[in-house]
From TrEMBL:
Descriptive protein name: Peptidoglycan-binding protein
Compositionally skewed regions (Basic and acidic residues) per UniProt: 180-196
Entry's transmembrane regions: none
One Pfam family it belongs to: CHAP
Organism: Solirubrobacter deserti
SUPFAM superfamilies (alphabetical): Cysteine proteinases (SSF54001), Lysozyme-like (SSF53955), PGBD-like (SSF47090)
Record region (Disordered): 177-205, 289-311
Top-rank taxon: Bacteria
Domain Peptidoglycan binding-like: 319-375
Domain Peptidase C51: 431-513
């Protein structure tokens, strides 16, 4: 690690290229600790906007041209500092979300996410579970070095002032305490039209309007802001009284004392006005958060009077706002208590199964349309029957193209030990080739990805690819890449295929390196929703 003086020199030079401002804006947007992005920039390039890393790293954050081609194609090489900082911060935020989904405790998520920036999340999680999170990072010390640099860099940063508007033309500025003095006011955040990376919160948007920047309202953060405003109100009232008490202890000439007390009275009046405004805003935020958080279909409607909108199928491993809605409904109906954390884990699964048994539904722990209807007091929908014959069409768009191309390869069988045309196309040796099959399919559909357009040989690389694009999800979609453990299910991923349809509690997919009637080849099979790790959605 560099010395304090060396870091100070890097920090001062960073201002000249706009890196300090860019990092601050990126950290605020993705709710990351102050100084983190500067620390990563220091580790990667000593805060310089250069190309390096054996010819593949681009810019101050060394964004790899083998895995982030779309970003670099758009922004150039090296990319602008502000775009690089925002993109790198989005990767860290995505890594933290994924770490949470994989059960990493909150206290360890930042370290795992930072290690994942260097080694990929597959490598970071493998190291973490073995007891050495950095064991697969460069120098075996990437995250520990970055966090040590951050600790030093925070001491260089100016005091962070946070403003809260409490009325027309009235604002409160303060310096909230926290770890290294870097806590920020939680509140609503905005994101671009690709969607927020904030744990699956719903977006409030007029679907008929022209698509532009979208506002994401997080009810939990709104409540945190309300608590902070209420505390500010109390502190203002306390400080107003303290000013007068301290002033009375000072001996002043009569005329001066009169003027001072008049000024103090004016200050007290203004502080109490601010405090009252803060309390009003706190109450308003609480009410708004409660309205946003109300489970869809659970209020303001009479049971059976309104048509039940189709809900996403949820199973163990799902995360996000819809899971929170599920957990609140289970608690309300007496099948808890569950922590409303948006994580569909074993406790939520067990509660779902108890509810399903009570309602005489299939107790498989998967929340499909019948279970949603019972939870919301709606009539249970009748099953949809499909005429016999070929599998359903995949619809339109790139996902449909992937399915059509994949179906065209059904019945192809490998030769020898893992010999196949898909790995040969990618200029790779005979190897387990499910990922090579997906790589070939993407290229045939007109959207080659990965180094030289030859895709990726490992499932973990595909997961990193989708996460970097913001296309990693827990809900299936036609044409999506589905990842799962083909042997035992569970949370690991060693197989990948293309989703062709979703029926009941199963996902049907086409994949290579798959056992079938003719041996090992390209076949269409199914996997239970509960055994899926996640889905890489295709571009639209």
């Amino acid at each position: 690690m560099p010395t304090q003086a060396q870091l100070r020199s890097e920090y001062e030079n960073a201002a000249a290229i706009g890196l300090r401002r860019a990092c601050q804006e990126a950290e605020e947007r993705y709710d990351l600790p102050r100084g983190l992005m500067l620390a990563i920039a220091s580790r990667e390039t000593n805060m310089r906007n250069i190309n390096g890393d054996g010819g593949h790293g681009r810019g101050v954050f060394q964004i790899d041209d083998r895995y982030h081609q779309d970003f670099l194609r758009k922004h150039g090489s090296p990319p602008p500092v502000d775009a690089s900082a925002m993109y790198a911060a989005s990767l860290i935020a995505s890594n933290m979300k994924y770490a949470k989904e994989q059960g990493v405790p909150e206290k360890d998520r930042l370290r795992v996410a930072v290690a994942g920036y260097n080694a990929g999340m597959g490598g970071a999680l493998a190291g973490y579970r073995s007891g050495a999170v950095d064991s697969r990072t460069t120098g075996d010390n990437y995250s520990s070095d970055v966090l040590a640099r951050r600790k030093a860099i925070v001491s260089f940063l100016p005091t962070a002032m946070v403003g809260i508007t409490v009325g027309a033309g009235v604002a409160i500025g303060f310096d909230p305490p926290g770890e290294d003095g870097d806590r920020k006011l939680p509140g609503p955040v905005s994101d671009d039209e690709k969607g927020a990376k904030n744990g699956g919160r719903g977006r409030l948007v007029n679907e008929g309007a022209k698509r532009g920047p979208m506002i994401v309202l997080d009810p939990d953060k709104m409540r945190s802001a309300a608590s902070l405003l209420a505390r500010t109100s109390n502190e203002l009232d306390r400080d107003a009284q303290l000013i007068k008490t301290q002033a009375s202890k000072v001996t002043l000439p009569p005329q001066v004392r009169t003027n001072v007390l008049a000024e103090i009275a004016a200050i007290q009046y203004r502080m109490r006005a601010l405090g009252n405004g803060a309390e009003d805003q706190a109450e308003d935020l609480r009410k708004r958060a409660n309205r946003i958080d109300e489970p869809a279909g659970a209020s303001r409607r009479s049971a059976g009077k309104a048509k039940l909108a189709r809900k996403p199928v949820l199973a163990r491993g799902a995360t996000g706002a819809t899971v929170k809605t599920l957990q609140r409904l289970l608690n309300r109906l007496g099948f808890g208590p569950l922590a409303v954390d948006g994580i569909f884990g074993p406790l939520t699964q067990a509660a779902v199964q108890r509810f399903q048994r009570a309602k005489k539904l299939d107790s498989d722990g998967v929340v499909g349309q019948k279970t949603w209807a019972a939870l919301l007091g709606q009539p249970v929908p009748k099953p949809v029957t499909r005429p016999s014959g070929d599998a359903p069409a995949a619809g339109k768009g790139f996902g449909a193209s992937l399915v059509k191309i994949a179906r065209g390869q059904r019945g192809y069988d490998e030769y020898g030990n893992n010999g196949n045309k898909f790995s040969a196309w990618a200029n790779r040796p005979a190897e387990p080739w499910c990922a090579d099959f997906v790589s070939w399919t993407y290229a045939q559909a007109g959207k080659p990805v990965g180094p030289n357009g030859k895709g990726y040989a490992a499932v973990s690389q595909w997961i990193d690819y989708f996460k970097a694009r913001g296309d990693w999800h827990t809900a299936p979609r036609i044409g999506a890449a589905v990842m799962f453990d083909w042997k035992n299910g569970g949370v690991t991923s060693d197989h990948i295929g293309i989703v062709t349809r979703i029926e009941g509690h199963s996902v049907y997919y086409i994949s290579g390196n798959t056992s079938g009637s003719g041996g090992t080849g390209v076949y269409e099979k199914s996997v239970p929703l509960a055994n899926v790790t996640g889905y890489g959605w295709p571009p639209q």
